[in-house]
Amino acid sequence: MTGPLREALAAAVGPAHVTAPAPLDDVAGRPCGPFLRVRPASTAEVAAVVRACRSSGAPLVPLGAATAYWAPLPGLGVTPIVGIDLSRLDALSFAGRAPVVGAGAAVRPLDQALRGRGLHLPIHPDAFGHTSVGALVASACTSGIGMGAGSIGEAIAGVEVVTGTGEVFWTGSAARAGVPPFLREGFPDLTGAILGAEGGLGVVTQVALRPRPAPWRVHLRGAVPPERLGAVVAHGAALGGAYDTFRLARTLGAWEAGYTLDVWVISAFSAREAVERAVEVQRRLNAAGARIDACTAESAAARAGRSPDYDARWTGPLDGLDPFLARARLRGLDVNAPYEAFPALLDAAEALLAAQRGAGVPESRLAWYLAPDFINLGVHATVPKDADPWPESRSAPWFARFAALPIVPYRLGRAWPPAMLDGLGLTRALLHELRRALDPDRLFVPGHPLWT
Ligand SMILES: Cc1cc2nc3c(=O)[nH]c(=O)nc-3n(C[C@H](O)[C@H](O)[C@H](O)COP(=O)(O)OP(=O)(O)OC[C@H]3O[C@@H](n4cnc5c(N)ncnc54)[C@H](O)[C@@H]3O)c2cc1C
């Protein structure tokens, strides 16, 4: 099958943009593929690739940076899967005031380009900025930087999708010819279904963003002793609207030091208002038992996307993707939960950390990211690339233990017990109806539990 398929793909995107089938390790070190990688440069080329796959019955998967550690990508098999790499679709244009961006644009250069025009990307992973905006939509980002100000669903006004039959459609108000994508309420809209579909309903090729002005920000940095954690976490809800990012993190290796605290206080109105708010936030956090060591107003250059403090915001917890991958792999478990679940989550997270410590995991990070109406918890173990004390089999019972708590796995992938999906009932049946309409030959993301 590969010979004629390769020829058809080469005809669709040009021979230089098709590479021989090769496996790919994700950030957790899990072998995926093998993928016959194609790099289309336009929506029309993506559609041509999909049609070529359909004619050959070849499965296909949109590929981002493979940093999703909950395993949405298919594991190693014998059939080459066509991997659609969208990195050449990265153009930014404007429909009226609304930015429209190619799905392959990485979030950091996108944010920088928006800031050059007084706008910004309000939410993105607390990672390295490599994530593509298409992957952000496909995995429904609800955590990390900016989650205090809303989800990716609230930041976008519609998406362009190539279906499993090679047809192209826009969701949101952008679906109406000639209307800039300024809103989506009040019009039958599939945007919500595409969010978190992890590639199962089609390839996201463009994203229409809502124009969001860059806020003024003040960074509060400090520490929280473990016994004051609950009192400080409660302020995630109490201070809703005052911050875009509220992060508390504790790491094996510096466990005795308790939690580091970072809160970015924002004002959409003025630098002065941001500072006034920061003073009040600092007072309340101190009263809750936090210690604030530094309070720094973001410079005008950082707000415009050009300065060392702007750059520092993108290294994430692991100091850059390439240096990290050269030495290690990430084993992560993330959930979203209501504030009421905090005590149960804390117990489970500390037990997981203790188990990892006992197994000889040298580095692991327990992090809380707070939003006005929910908590995100992540436990991220870093394991050396060549000596693995925490293989996937050790993680599995922990996914089952967390699944029994009142949580939402913030991503689905293959890491969670498939039984979690049983509770979806009619929603799941409707999603499968949608899949039948959009991908009748079931070519996308083979074996993904949400779609099988
Ligand atoms: C250190 C570290 C910190 C992180 N912190 C955060 C965080 O704070 N918040 C957070 O949300 N995530 C976080 N992540 C996880 C991850 O980086 C992102 O969630 C990201 O969205 C996945 O992007 P990716 O490009 O690597 O996607 P991939 O892993 O390549 O793909 C993810 C899924 O999306 C699908 N997909 C990709 N592109 C498209 C497309 N154009 N159309 C349709 N489907 C598509 C793929 O098929 C796959 O199913 C972190 C990861 C690391 C390593």
Overview of the molecule:
This protein has 4 domains: 2-86 and 439-451, Uridine Diphospho-n-acetylenolpyruvylglucosamine Reductase, domain 2, CATH 3.30.43.10; 92-209, 2-Layer Sandwich (Uridine Diphospho-n-acetylenolpyruvylglucosamine Reductase, domain 3), CATH 3.30.465; 216-303, Alpha-Beta Plaits (2-Layer Sandwich); 321-416, Alpha-Beta Plaits (2-Layer Sandwich). It is built from 14 helices and 17 strands. The protein has 452 residues and is an alpha+beta fold. The strands form 3 sheets. It has an 8-stranded antiparallel sheet. Strand 1 and strand 2 form a beta hairpin.
Main sheet? 8 strands, antiparallel
Indicate the CATH topology of the largest domain: Uridine Diphospho-n-acetylenolpyruvylglucosamine Reductase, domain 3
Number of strands: 17
Number of domains: 4
Structural class of the helix and strand makeup?
A: alpha+beta
Q: Cα-atom Rg, whole angstroms?
A: 22 Å
Mean pLDDT: 93
CATH class of the largest domain: Alpha Beta
Q: How many separate helices?
A: 14
How much beta, percentage-wise?
Answer: 15-25%
The ligands bound in this entry are: flavin-adenine dinucleotide
Strands in their spatial order, largest beta sheet: 13-10-12-11-15-16-14-17
Helix content: 25-40%
| CATH-level-2 architecture of the largest domain | 2-Layer Sandwich
